[in-house]
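ingest -> validate -> predict -> emit
validate: passed (alphabet ok, no gaps, 443 aa)
predict: started
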Amino acid sequence: MKDINDEMINKIMEDCPKTTTRLKRNQFLSREKIEKLKEEKFIKLVNYAYNNVPLYKKKYDEAGIKIEEIKTLKDIEKLPILEKEELIEGFPNDTVSKEYNVDDLTIGITGGTTGKTLNIAYSDETMLMRVFTSYRMFDLIADGYNRDDVHTYVYTSKFPLGDCLPDGSFPMHFICTLDGIEKSKEILLKTKPNLLTMYPSRLEDILRELSEEEIKEISKNLKAICVKSEMSTQKQRDEWSKIFNVPVLDEYGSEELCGTVAAQCQHKGYHIWEDLNIIEAVDENGINVPDGELGELLGTNLYNYAMPLIRYRQGDLVSIHPKEVKCECGREFQMIKELKGRKNSTFKLKSGKVLSSGYLLDVGYVQLIKYRNTLKSWVLIQEKIDKVVFECIPGEGLTEEIKANIKKDVEKLLFNEAEVEVRLVKDLPVSARGKRKQIISEI
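emit:
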């Protein structure tokens, strides 16, 4: 994903006070006002998508939907579910709004958890909102994210804004997930962050190598730790919280749904950003389940008009608290009761080194980014302690030279302790929910 340009940064500086105030206020609106806000945004989005995106015009006409009859939020249940395959096959001609030129849009990619890679287009306006939403999420998790707070961000790639805003506010230090543990420790000890964000498995990686004194040093200024992009349990987060003596809280995000979808506050309430996304839980027949019951997650993003996603089958399982269940923090947004996503394996190497799923996901993901035009998707399989298979669906132009480069790159990232075979396949196995494990250990 491309960095935000100077013009957009100036827009962020100009709009930041007004937009962040509005986003913060939305969390504390009455339920009546939240429902009204969602309904207005939903009706506007559905009409726009029907009139400007060929996929929705065709899909709704074939389903017999009369768009003028979609008048309330409850009417969302009348709309057919959007499948990932429709987005993959229709991109960009059928999925991007005719009001946008795809060459002017930011194109993000998912890791291909259904076995295929998905492109998502964002307008500049959407990218700006993603930044503001991230700041709101950081504020929620840290119970106050201030302009001079230091944020250390451990992830696949840098936060879109880079190191800070032009005036030096919101400083952020980046650690690549693939950086060695020693380098990661060094930066953490040097930066002394107020907020720390990373994969839960990478947190465990680093924690194993930290002494008690180093943990105390890193914890000195910490307000909170945010874990994201992988499943972790509340029990695990509570254990990490005791070690660092700060809240360790989860964020649920989705590239398709434009980033942050829900996050925990310091009272552990798992708040859905209802002003930005509509989340539903449905049964195997696509019927909404009662609040509190587990169902498959459907997401509707309310602000990406360049490539609208309406009732998109995310593939995770979720149960949602009834609206009457309130959080101690006073926020009125409805909360997630339970969330289940994919779980991945770890690899153990000959030396005894354990590679976490977070690290291994990035081993594969960087190949996808590097060779995005020639790779459709991938999975890493450890068949023996010294043998790993990089199984992938090839795109056009995957040459023997590229295969050799992937083999060399992956072997290096596995510390040259395993031979890597790049194996081309036509398809990758998926679960009944359309998800698959990208990291598999057979030993």
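The chain has a mean pLDDT of 90.
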